[in-house]
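Hi F.,

I've been meaning to write this up properly since the lab meeting, where we talked about keeping a consistent format for the predictions we share between groups. The idea is simple: the sequence comes first, exactly as it goes in, then the structure tokens exactly as they come out, then a line or two of notes. No screenshots and no reformatting. I'm using this chain as the first example so we have something concrete to point to.
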Amino acid sequence: MTTTGSEGAGLPGGKAPSRIPLPILALALLLALWTAAILLFPGFRFVFRWSRARLPIETAGFLVAVLTSGLAYLRWSLTGSRRFLYLSLAFVPLAVQHLVFGVLVSPGRLDFTGEQAVYFWTAGRLAAAGLLLAGLIARRAIAGSPSGAFLRRLAAVLIGLGIVDAVLWAVREDLPALSSGLAGGVDLPGSLPGLTAVDLLLGVTGGVLFLVVAAVLLRDRGPSDPSAGILSAAFVLAAFSHLHYMFLPTVFTTRVSTGDLLRVGFSVALLLGLVLDVRATYLSERRRAADLAMAYRVERRRAEELEGLERSRVELMQIVTHELLHPVATLRGSAVTLARRWDRLAEAERRELVSIMERETKRLRDLAEHAAEAVAGERSTFSISPRPEPAEALLAEAADTSPELRGAVGVVVDPSASGAVVRAERTRLLQVFRNLLDNARKYAGGGPVTITAAGDDREVTFSVHDRGPGIAEADLPRLFQRFSRIAGGGDGRGSGLGLYISRRIVEAHGGRMWVESEVGVGSSFRFTVPRWEEG
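Output, unedited:
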């Protein structure tokens, strides 16, 4: 068996289950056998007098109909399922008929008999079954807001029901008799107690309609639909209660029969099915809310990462700009010297200045390459290409990285670092030395500057010492932060990025950087670089 639409179907490919669930099949078979026994054997009839039971039964029926309509409307507003919109509408005529003709205008009042009340009661049940089938079979999309769609259809249902009730009330005296056994105090004789063709037609029509509703619900149920089976069982009970009221017409009398018992069972099953369905919907919405919350957190992290990348790009541009100032200043100084003093410079001096310009242009090229690489990869850390570099050669070249200190930097190689080879990228480490020496020049006030190297089995420690005024202890934590400057000392023209850049370069090499300083004595900036390990 296949479904004609997608709503309510939960199996792959749109196919619905082809087998009737065993509990529902057993329930239908049991009720059919019970009904047959009532028809064939009068002893199986279950009828007894209970004069005070009718009002509670009809009141309970009204309350169940209202509650069912409300729960179904809640389900419709949450999911937009057409089935539950019409389920909500279907119980409106039942609630109205129970309230008006079972509670407010009960038989015996206003020249209104029990047999006449059966017509109104049956009209409400047939209207409910028709609405249920309309919601289950029709597949056209429902336009508009949920509340607007419900109110428009509710108005149509109430107007239609009002017209039917008005017609029935107008002709109530001329309605065909349903049974000769409805008179008070008269026993119900035979297997069919004097039922007329009209009663049979109404009873069979109502029973068949509710069975069809149960069958369509089973056809369209999904594998994870907890309510479809229970709702189907409820409408099976409704179908047989309709038939039992036809065979034993005790509705709106002082008697209670199997029809009443089945109607109570129908109400209990219906409420249970709707409660389970609303619970399943609530759990589904809660899972959906959790999924949305998780998606929000993921998107928020992604937005934070994008913001971080944007900050990294801005930071990178600041770093590149800062680092370009050193070689550009050196190139400009050398070029101006050559241009203005060419005739007064010895050949060796010219060659030295040209060599400086060549070295600085190479550094500019290397910086540009690394900057382009970092921008392309959207990285906020330095990328290095380490090679084996002799520590003494690095130290000797580092002494010449600051033009203002050229020839004034002392170089000391501890025996523990003699012959040491470090795992480093030359250009990057020379950047570190240049930044540290530039800071030493600005803050040492013309005092001596010394660079040293000492080592152990794992790494080499490089140091830049100055005899400047030293750094206050309160300022030490801010030294390696971006855009951080120390008050007092220096020319104040630094960008506050030099030490920050230097530490990041050292950390990219796998080393660490720190400072030791004493006010009035001087400062020592130290950093480590791992030794080169063969293989």
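Notes:
The longest helix spans residues 258-341.
The beta strands are 47-49, 255-257, 387-390, 409-413, 421-424, 449-455, 459-466, 513-518, 522-530.

If this format works for you, I'll send the rest the same way.

G.
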